[in-house]
Amino acid sequence: MLSGELVTLRAIERDDIEVLHGFDMAYETWPEINYAPYAPKALEEVLKAYDGDEESSYRGSDAFVPFSIVVDEEVVGTCCFWGIDLHNRRAHLGIGLGEEHRGRGIGTDATKVMLHYGFVDRGLHRIQLEVLASNAAAIRSYEKAGFREDGRMRESAWVRGQFEDEVYMSVIATDR
Q: Beta-carbon neighbour count of residue 137 at 10 Å?
């Protein structure tokens, strides 16, 4: 387990999946955590994938390391490193919180914990992410955790019938 000021990050357990699945399938926040059209899956299908040999966003691999975000013994979200590239010592950060848990510093704290884990324990040099330009709260949270904007991809994300810019951000080990 990894601990911050507000959060504990731990391996995702089967009992977490129902809560996480509810966050992941929310139509209102789908574009912030997914890069595909809204396509909800039944909980039974998600549990079957987790229990079996199918790819699961709740089970790790060499290139993907997911965590449950826990606050006061309650699962409030998930975060991960994905696209881990050991040759170039970089990874992408992903994070998703239940809507009712946003705006309380939880995401910023979880991000700081992930940065420490990535740089100190995994030996990464660069941690990067992409975020919708319209998601001002997330951008502020990432900046508080130490991310800097690398640039923007103009109209690169199709979100609910229109194109949106994406902001590319990163933290380099030497920035800290």
A: 12
In the block, tokens 């965590």 appear at 67
Map out the domains of the chain with their CATH numbers: 2-125 (3.40.630.30)
Output the six-digit token pair for 117: 């884990």
Please say whether the dihedral angle defined by the alpha carbons of residues 151, 135, 102 and 50, taken in this order, is positive or negative.
Answer: negative
CA angle, corner 24, sides to 47 and 1, nearest 5?
75
Higher pLDDT, residue 29 or 18: 18
Residue (of 161, 117, 127, 146) closest to 2 by Cα position:
117
Pair 154, 118: CB distance under 8 Å: no
Rounded Cα distance, 42 and 114, in Å: 29
pTM of the predicted protein model: 0.91
